[in-house]
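Why do we care about 3D structure at all? Because function follows from shape, and shape follows, mostly, from sequence. That is the central idea of this module. The next example makes it concrete: a single protein chain, its amino acid sequence, and then its structure expressed as tokens.
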Amino acid sequence: MKPFLLATSLILAPFIVNAEEDFSDLIEQLEKFDAAHMNRGEYLDQMETIFPDLSVAAFLLFTRARPELNDYAPDFTWSEAYEEAFGCMYDQTAGVGNYDDLKAYTQGGLVSLQYLRDNPELNFMTMTEHPEYMDSVTPSSAYLTLLKDCGVQQLSQDAMMKSGMMEALQKVASQ
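And the structure:
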């Protein structure tokens, strides 16, 4: 289970929201998000708006179980590097008419936020007890490849390393 927690944290990092657990504004934005009707610039503008908040909700999984992990919150501020990475994702999916992977990203975030909001007992120690949640955040192998190939996974890892979150998670996992 311990390696699972670390691997899951890397997968979920792109979905990691501040301590506010209502998520109403972000849920509304995700419900309206439709990459099929966006050009690359519109897509990146939308991602700039929602990505930091999405990146900071899955973090709630950790702080619910271990509030001291809040001290290691990664900085997921939108940057040129994220713009390049998500631009790559757009180019490799919507740019060639495949909107399913982009939709999976936002739909996974939407379902995840709704489930987090409605299940305050959910945290990284209990998430395997919530199959509906696990199904909503378990990406396809194609999507994981896209995250890796476009650099989103590495950017998330780097942010977690820089903040000390990776080390803190390793300590929690070893306890």
